[in-house]
Amino acid sequence: MKNTIKSLASALLMLVCTSAVQAQYQKPISMDLWTQGLPNTNGIESKGYDDATRNYKPGITVYLPKGNSKPARAVVICPGGGYYMLAMDHEGHQWAPFFNARGIAAIVVKYRMPNGHDEVPQSDVYEAIRIVKAHATEWNIDPAGIGVMGFSAGGHLASTVATHAPADISLKFQILMYPVITMDATFTHQGSRNGLIGASPTAEKIKLYSNELQVNAGTPRAFIALSDDDDVVLPLNSVRYYEALKQHNIPATMMVYPSGGHGWGIGESFLYHTQMLTELDSWLRTF
Q1: Cβ distance 208 to 160 under 8 Å?
Q2: CA 260 to chain centre
Q3: For 214-232, what is each residue's pLDDT tens digit?
Q4: Is the CB of residue 270 less than 8 Å from the CB of residue 264?
Q5: Would you say 174 and 137 are in contact if contact means Cβ atoms under 8 Å apart?
Q6: DSSP letters spanning 228-286
Q7: How are the residues of the chain apportioned to helix, strand and coil, as percentages rounded to the nearest 5?
Q8: Fewer Cβ in 10 A, N or C end of the chain?
Q9: Residue-wise over 162-171: b if at least 16 C-beta within 10 A, else e?
Q10: Model pTM score
Q11: Within 10 Å of residue 67's Cβ, how many Cβ atoms?
Q12: CA atoms of 213 and 3, how far apart (whole Å)
């Protein structure tokens, strides 16, 4: 009998928690990018979009918070995956409740893999940001309060957008989790480099996508989080980017956790999961 009561209580608690999470945001909105035709190609779209083969159809999923009395900030999220695939859940959709609970809209981008066509992923993210701005009134979003977030290779993409954005793309902030930053062969993530600019890139391309070298006065403030024992994407990527931000007097916060390796996303198995979310929450309250 006690076990039955305990089971019922657990089920009720789960239902309440699930309802609470669902109450934080409206029904997600899914939209395709480039409905008027692609501006560029990664060379495989003609084979037919298929997530199983990593031939992703570019699009966004929009999670809007409920109950905002004033326009919300928004974060455009770039999942990681080494410029080879996309970790859409723990580095994408599963972040929506965290942001929505804080009155922030979350927009998860399904971007195309570059396959050596380096302009493709960033063009998809730029278009996602333009769509958010175009729907700002309808979605109750502050067009001046849009930021970008990325994980691993998605962190490289987010930092590329933050440092290379054209004039019509203005960002308020960037959030980078264990990001690839550089294309310098001595401390890059080789798989991400190969996927983006190929196995034998020119010196010009290496410099262009070494984002520690591309920070400028217009680069937005940053929150960076990583693990000291990350042997997939070396911590020096984040350190060099943080140094570049400070050299340009750009507000930046960097959290280095003692352990956790690479790729923890929003997974609760990460030992510093709660601490990381608390620190991110605190940082979001500073501006």
Answers
A1: no
A2: 19
A3: 999 999 999 999 999 999 9
A4: yes
A5: no
A6: TT-SSS-THHHHHHHHHHHHTT--EEEEEESS--S--TT-TTSTTHHHHHHHHHHHHTT
A7: 40, 20, 45
A8: N
A9: bbbbeeebeb
A10: 0.91
A11: 9
A12: 60
